């Protein structure tokens, strides 16, 4: 199957700083990528849809100024957590599909564990 | 968005067959049933997808009755490495119809 890679796999940052997480589709082009966050023992929560060359679409309740998404190329989307606070500590996962049609398989990155101290 | 109900957790022993049932009474005509597996600290991984009857691949089987109001993921002869969370997704997409929306999932624990 297609490969989606995230970097870094884990990061620790100080409160108030910003952290950038990269998501790459290694062997296919992804005009659309998706960002999720997952708290311990909870399910994945969709944060936003990242669209190549245009603005991201955020889910209700997700602060767009807090979670900056950039999708500058067909193989790279980045999520920047700005002015991070301890409550932003979570597992962030990106995903991409070969097509945006419903019922098509989604490929997920390995996730990024963010710890804000 | 069809609401799905699956057990919160299941326990099994190595070598046993595990069946996880998912209820989806409001499944739409064009909805497929898809299962994902997630290991701790990893992203989910696609296991299997079906529309009706039975689908089998190298990992699992998916049984879907004629009314499609439920489905059963069958894992033959599980091993310790099958310990994971299993998500049943039915028509589970966001408003744009592009991103998957995950429910609670079933935590499967396999013991020796």
Task: Describe the structure using short key phrases.
heterodimer, A: 117 residues, mainly beta, 7-stranded mixed sheet, 4-stranded antiparallel sheet, 0% helix, 51% strand, globular, B: 112 residues, 5-stranded mixed sheet, 9 strands
Summarize the structure.
The complex is a heterodimer of chains A (117) and B (112). Chain A is 0% helix and 51% strand.
Please tell me about this protein's structure.
The complex is a heterodimer of chains A (117) and B (112). Chain A has strands spanning 4-7, 10-13, 19-25, 32-38, 45-51, 57-58, 67-73, 76-81, 90-97, 106-108, 112-116. With 117 residues, chain A is mostly beta strands. The mean pLDDT of chain A is 93. Chain B is an all-beta fold and 112 residues long. Helix content of chain B is 0%, strand content 45%. Chain B is built from no helices and nine strands. In chain B, strand 6 (61-64) and strand 7 (70-75) form a beta hairpin. In chain B, 34% of the residues are buried. The chains are: A mainly beta (117), B mainly beta (112). Chains A and B meet through strand 4, strand 5, strand 9 and strand 10 of A and strand 4 of B.
Q: What is the element layout, followed by pairings?
A:
The complex is a heterodimer of chains A (117) and B (112).
Chain A: E1 4-7, E2 10-13, E3 19-25, E4 32-38, E5 45-51, E6 57-58, E7 67-73, E8 76-81, E9 90-97, E10 106-108, E11 112-116
Chain B: E1 9-13, E2 18-23, E3 33-38, E4 45-50, E5 53-56, E6 61-64, E7 70-75, E8 84-90, E9 106-111
Parallel strand pairs in B: 1-9
Antiparallel strand pairs in B: 2-7, 3-4, 3-8, 5-6, 6-7, 8-9
């Amino acid at each position: 199957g297609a490969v989606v890679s995230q970097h870094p796999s884990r990061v620790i940052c100080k409160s108030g700083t910003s952290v950038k997480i990269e998501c790459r589709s290694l062997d296919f082009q992804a005009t659309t990528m998706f960002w999720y966050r997952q708290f311990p023992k909870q399910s994945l929560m969709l944060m936003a849809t990242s669209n190549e060359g245009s603005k991201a679409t955020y889910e209700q309740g997700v602060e767009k100024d807090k979670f900056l998404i950039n999708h500058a190329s067909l193989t790279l989307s980045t999520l920047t957590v700005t002015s991070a606070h301890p409550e932003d500590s979570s597992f962030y996962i990106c995903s991409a599909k070969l097509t945006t049609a419903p019922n098509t398989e989604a490929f997920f990155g390995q996730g990024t564990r963010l710890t804000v101290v | 968005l069809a609401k799905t109900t699956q057990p919160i957790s299941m326990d099994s022993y190595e070598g046993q067959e595990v069946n996880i049932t998912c209820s989806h009474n409001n499944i739409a005509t064009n909805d497929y049933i898809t299962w994902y597996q997630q290991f701790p600290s990893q992203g989910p991984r696609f296991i299997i997808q079906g529309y009706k009857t039975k689908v089998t691949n190298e990992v699992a089987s998916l049984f879907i009755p004629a009314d499609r109001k439920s489905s059963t993921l069958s894992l033959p002869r599980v091993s310790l490495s099958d310990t994971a969370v299993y998500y049943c997704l039915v028509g589970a997409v966001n408003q744009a119809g592009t991103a998957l929306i995950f429910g609670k999932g079933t935590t499967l624990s396999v013991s020796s």
